[in-house]
Amino acid sequence: MADPELEALRQRRLAELQAQGGGQGPSPEEMQRQRREQEQAKNSMLASIMDPSARSRLASLRAVKPENAAMVENYLIQAAQRGQLHGKVGEEDLKHILAQVAERTAAKTTISFNRRQLAGFEDDDQDYGRGLRRGDDSDSDSD
């Protein structure tokens, strides 16, 4: 088969697969459209449960720490769906939620010191300074 024939077969097969639904799931354009729709739905829900000052603070957080902002957004949406929110979430309420998120995600810092043993010395307390004094012939083998 020549290249044009092979290319024509590929095009026909690709057209058949697309007509059958691709067999691979949604196309990238379809996935992008679904993501936009989900984002719009999430934004409209957040707009309905938050006042403008809280939304502004959340937008500032999103610029600095997007993962924390996503956690707060998901928390707020779930709380609204369960009916746990009474009225709109204000800036003070959002500060409280952010403090809770910060406690959960705070990295616990530990510092450990590893003392390295010097060659030939097993216990620093007993051997510290040994052989460093002048006139001390107890360590020298030149008898």
TrEMBL record:
InterPro entries in the cross-refs: PDCD5-like, PDCD5-like_sf
UniProt GO MF annotations: DNA binding
Pfam families (UniProt xref): dsDNA_bind (PF01984)
Coiled coil: none
Domain of life, source organism: Eukaryota
GO CC terms of this entry: cytosol; nucleus
Annotated segments matching region Disordered: 14-49, 118-143
Annotated family: Belongs to the PDCD5 family.
Protein name listed in UniProt: Programmed cell death protein 5
Organism for this UniProt entry: Monosiga brevicollis (Choanoflagellate)
